[in-house]
Amino acid sequence: MADWKSRVYEKREQIKNSIPPGWVVPQDALPPNSQLDVTAFPQRCRMLSSKELQITESSVTKLLANLADARWSSVEVTTAFYKRAIIAHQLVNCLTEIFVDQALQRAEELDIYLKEHGHVMGPLHGLPVSLKDQINIRGIDSTMGYASWIGKKADKNSVLVDVLESLGAVPFVKTNVPQTLMWAETFNNIFGRTVNPYNRALTSGGSSGGEGALIAMRGSPLGVGSDIGGSIRIPAAFCGLYGLRPSAGRVPYAGCVNSMEGQDSVLSVLGPMSDSIQGVKAFMQAVIGARSWMLDPLVIPKPWSNDEYNLVNHNNGQNLCFGIMWNDGLVVPQPPIRRGLEIVKQALLDAGHKVIDWQPIKHKEILATVDGIWAAADLEDYEAVLRDLKEPLVSSMTPASVDADGFHPGVEFAADGISAFELWQLQKERRALRTEYLGHWNATASATGTGRPVDAIICPTAAYVAPKHGGNNSAAYTKVWNGLDYTSCTLPVAQADESIDVDTRNFVDEPFLSLNDKTTSEMYDARTSHGAPIAIQLVGRTMEEEAVIKMVEIVEVAIREYVMNKGATPA
Amino acid sequence: MADWKSRVYEKREQIKNSIPPGWVVPQDALPPNSQLDVTAFPQRCRMLSSKELQITESSVTKLLANLADARWSSVEVTTAFYKRAIIAHQLVNCLTEIFVDQALQRAEELDIYLKEHGHVMGPLHGLPVSLKDQINIRGIDSTMGYASWIGKKADKNSVLVDVLESLGAVPFVKTNVPQTLMWAETFNNIFGRTVNPYNRALTSGGSSGGEGALIAMRGSPLGVGSDIGGSIRIPAAFCGLYGLRPSAGRVPYAGCVNSMEGQDSVLSVLGPMSDSIQGVKAFMQAVIGARSWMLDPLVIPKPWSNDEYNLVNHNNGQNLCFGIMWNDGLVVPQPPIRRGLEIVKQALLDAGHKVIDWQPIKHKEILATVDGIWAAADLEDYEAVLRDLKEPLVSSMTPASVDADGFHPGVEFAADGISAFELWQLQKERRALRTEYLGHWNATASATGTGRPVDAIICPTAAYVAPKHGGNNSAAYTKVWNGLDYTSCTLPVAQADESIDVDTRNFVDEPFLSLNDKTTSEMYDARTSHGAPIAIQLVGRTMEEEAVIKMVEIVEVAIREYVMNKGATPA
């Protein structure tokens, strides 16, 4: 047996053993594989007390309030979420590292702190926070799905973990990713595949797909993902969550493992995922407030701004004007996403805001530049890790490509990177495109009627709701904003409904925009999509985290009002 | 004759013709070549009226005040500086582009604006500002010393020029640079060599050497240079000025020409040079206040902070603790610089501040990483420009290498860049070094006695005062801060004095640190250095522009007090 396989078997055994026996779902209580929607299982499985259910179904806001006034102890809250996380894991396979004792010990320390000092340790006091596998915690593996990295326990915390601990949070599990992180689904040879809680035949998205599935199961109130091309927003969208991709330099990344380290151009960033925008805000405000530029040289010393959150640069949030991008000029979204955009448009109009069409420019060129920059040396980067154990490079997310032991056979590949000079030319082109797009945005001032350019862009997060495993073949709707380094946040709007999401696209008058457009259109299956969360993305300018969060709150309230009054079918 | 040479002759002729005949210094009035210090020439040449002398010897603060209340018109002020700039040019060869009519027309528009509106157009109203050659002004060449770029007039303004104009400034000349900008002296085949006004046998430094010489001659009150490894600070230091290298992302760079475009790691930045720190502040506060992140996607949306200027993070400027780096572990500075550091130390102690020694760590590694990143593809970059006209690459700043027509013969070279993957490894290493240095800085908290890490580092700008042409062989003392992206500002302390700057270094007990150290030590010639400005550098953290400016003000006042009381010989 190959050395890498024996390591994997050992690791799998170790994970199994790290689950407290009492938290194992009995074989006969597990839902059958044919049961696709497992979101209701935790409530029904009788493994969680009513208080544990109450805790795990509370919002971050409520959790923090109850933790702060000691109504709930951190040990209680952490235990409840840990149990639920492990139950969830047995249904959707979302976890990588489990360390119950360590987390509960930390929770207990926080309870003692609160008792002794009479005040919280920080704004996230007592809150369990789940972390994407790559985020180093001292003494725990960060394998990122590489067999070669099994047993290489982190010798110190990543900066973010130190910061979260200083804020009072309780890091309690690590979550699944695709090998290399450079896929928009979640499968690797060690931990296998994470599936979507709303429909296990569908992908949870990726690369932060473990987080997406876990939080959707309410196995964590708040998680941290990373996003280089959509890896926070895609799983958040597919799993019906809120997920923020901050601009580079707002959340500390130092001390995590990653792919393509040293690639200084289109950077991966860490950001929050939660089932409320308030959860996202709590994370960002606390983490930025921790002044982590004193710890990570790539963090911009830009404090959290309440002025910006209160939209002082956006008419204080009154009479905003949004630009809706119905498609990116490359692929028209499938019917559920089109309905999602229509709902948002109507909701915003009803709430007294303006909406104009956003014209995409040069998305194809931006995407090509981003792809080119990564491809400059991505294979060399993977090869440098894989060669140790002659471990295969996972080259597909399709279930058919995986054998009975959960292994992907891998592909032969030759690292075929480009020269530094060629890379510089791509980076120069990217800068020119960023400048052009900025001018394009500014020029909308003549069309909004508000005297300002559009306040934010509303667009799809993906052209579809969660597709079948192996079917998520494009990250174009998210990656373009990484290329431009724009703050973007995804939010849920409704759920796909086969009875109303009927394809009415007029192919006679509107020919396909591209081959991809044709494929995407043909891929649509109203039956399979039924019930999957519909999400849209709200996009602000670079470093507009505070404003984007506030505008998502505004949109969310508008959607809720609209749906309450008129249902989820736009006029 | 080579095509590139004929273009150069044409360009030289055109520059000569752009000087108004009345501003040409008569041949017999020019100082003889043997006269080295020409700083007093403008006062004595009788070509400037007493009012013009008064204007050109006023500080930026006074100029802005007198312009704002219409005591002096912009036309008067611009004319005075233009005349003096052109007189200076005939002595130190500092200009590249001259456009008198355009600048005076702009000045007149500003005078009319003030009259009509009763208020200034912006905080730099009416002030002439000189620009390094690479900063694009619509309709004017930006050759950067490349014959190939002669006649390629910019089709639009750089963002900074648009911003300066919106602030009321009057861009009025462009200034000389070395070909490629990647030298710390100033010579190219088109415009020739810029010399130091304090001693024309010495270099003005580079690459913003035209700015340094011009401002030292009071031919401009405020100039803009660029700095990728010291190119603002070195000429500012050699010419007795204040020069700030801001962190990347504070001053808009978009729309300038440059070397190595697309190199996204160790970035060139634009910054101010002036003969007062108040001039530096006026520029930074105005430019940052213009919110140019709306125009240049690489500008960080971080507004000017009066809190940071008032040192709220540094005990409000009281009882500061500075770390003095006496040498960088590689090269011990020559006697005048050592005296400069001693003066600053004594001055700060007298002013009630603390001073501890700064231990440099890993400067050699940081410098190697920076050099490696540039060398990844620098030659390919130059080659892409030079091949058009088979123009030579200038490979030395030594006068002996230049022929009677002012041409450097160039060198054969083979572009020998590295792969993108190799570049990523260097960039990864740089990030690790930045993280380590940040930790090192933070760790000084245990040694300062203030409860804070050192508030700033004080160190040499170079190991020597301005050396002879061709002798500036290292930018180590500045480049290390580019590698770390720390805010740094150089300020003048005194002038070299052969009677006191005697080398007392004890070579018996303290052996040379390196071969470079030995060369630098042997190079010292008290006679030649006599009269040259001594400068030091104040270094803050990334993005601490406001705080660095304030601390330079504090140091400057302390030095002035000290010298007034005790002279320029430290105890």
Question: What characteristics describe this protein?
Answer:
eleven-stranded mixed β-sheet, homodimer, AS_sf (chains A, B), 15 strands, 20 helices, alpha/beta, two-stranded antiparallel ribbon, 39% helix, Amidase signature (AS) enzymes
How would you explain this protein's 3D organization?
Two copies of one chain form a homodimer. Chain A is α/β, with parallel strands linked by helices and 571 residues long. The first copy, chain A, has two domains: 304 residues, Amidase signature (AS) domain (Amidase signature (AS) enzymes, Alpha-Beta Complex); 162 residues, Alpha-Beta Complex (Amidase signature (AS) enzymes), CATH 3.90.1300. Chain A is 39% helix and 12% strand. Chain A is built from 20 helices and 15 strands. In chain A, the strands form three sheets. Chain A has an eleven-stranded mixed β-sheet with strand order 1-3-2-8-10-9-14-15-13-11-12. A two-stranded antiparallel ribbon of chain A has the order 4-5. In chain A, helix 13 packs across helix 17. The radius of gyration of chain A is 22 Å and the shape is globular. Chain A starts with a helix and ends in a 5-residue tail after the last helix. The model of chain A has no long low-confidence stretch (mean pLDDT 97). At the A-B interface, helix 15 of A face helix 15 of B.
Give the topology:
Two copies of one chain form a homodimer.
Chain A: H1 3-17, H2 41-44, H3 50-56, H4 60-68, H5 74-92, E1 95-98, H6 100-117, E2 128-132, H7 159-166, E3 170-175, E4 187-188, E5 192-193, E6 195-196, E7 199-203, H8 209-216, E8 222-227, H9 233-238, E9 242-245, E10 269-274, H10 277-289, H11 306-309, E11 321-324, H12 335-350, E12 354-357, H13 363-375, H14 378-386, H15 420-443, H16 445-448, E13 456-460, H17 476-484, E14 488-495, H18 515-523, H19 526-529, E15 533-539, H20 545-566
Parallel strand pairs in A: 2-3, 2-8, 11-12, 11-13
Antiparallel strand pairs in A: 1-3, 4-5, 6-7, 8-10, 9-10, 9-14, 13-15, 14-15
Helix pairs in contact in A: 3-5, 5-6, 10-20, 12-20, 13-15, 13-17
